[in-house]
């Protein structure tokens, strides 16, 4: 089987490319593959046309064409019966209004999905939103989760009950850092933030007297080390397409605090303490329960290590291969 993967330009973002390569590397052990990265990162008309032309030139006429994320409009020039799309979220659509909302719905989602054979959603939550917004016929939809990199392995840790190191990955608005900071006020801890923080966020940290440090632009190895050095991983987002830090933390063997809303609660399964991401008091109680209750920590770490088995590269790669073989 010949499979051609089309990826967005690397400068558009790191996360989609990383999770895609995790399962692609596994598929490459069994099948012949090619990877193509779009020449343009922007979403203006000229850049889109250049990317479409690039995809047309490199399309796989006989094998599988797989758009790994974001640049769904490439489906306009790929063989309809042999094209697969992986959908990570529909944030573009949900947080737009008026004409912009209409254009996103039709040209970024609806028509590309119509021009594809299968649309893979990375979570049940994403699938249900596709159905809600009537972006695609339900029979085309399949849920296959993101795969975790095999480099994430369990590392034992002696939990610091005096001043635990709490890790937050990402600084986007949806990561809910403002409420997290408010929840940590008065709790002896060190907050480690990965990602560029704004001046407003720095001021918020100072106002609530949070002991913190900040790093960004880390290598894969450095990211893993951040998990290893942590005592708790906090991921109380109010919006996600998936939530990779949850299973990355579970794979390392760290207790997780995350949101009690989809898709986080499904991704975490029983391997996390779940809290209302809109309630500062609930978030604070969640932190305190993990810090003070050793039995609870042991339980969610054990459940987390069990949960990550559903996200191994081989498991996810085989799920994709089953889809390819139906086309």
UniProtKB/TrEMBL annotation:
Pfam families: Glyco_transf_4, Glycos_transf_1
Biological process, per Gene Ontology: lipopolysaccharide biosynthetic process
Family annotation (InterPro entries): Glyco_trans_1, Glyco_trans_4-like_N
Keywords attached to this entry: Transferase
Protein's UniProt name: Glycosyltransferase family 1 protein
GO molecular function, one term: glycosyltransferase activity
Residues covered by the Glycosyl transferase family domain: 166-304
Any coiled-coil regions, as ranges: none
Domain (Glycosyltransferase subfamily 4-like N-terminal): residue spans on this chain: 72-151
CDD domains: GT4_MtfB-like
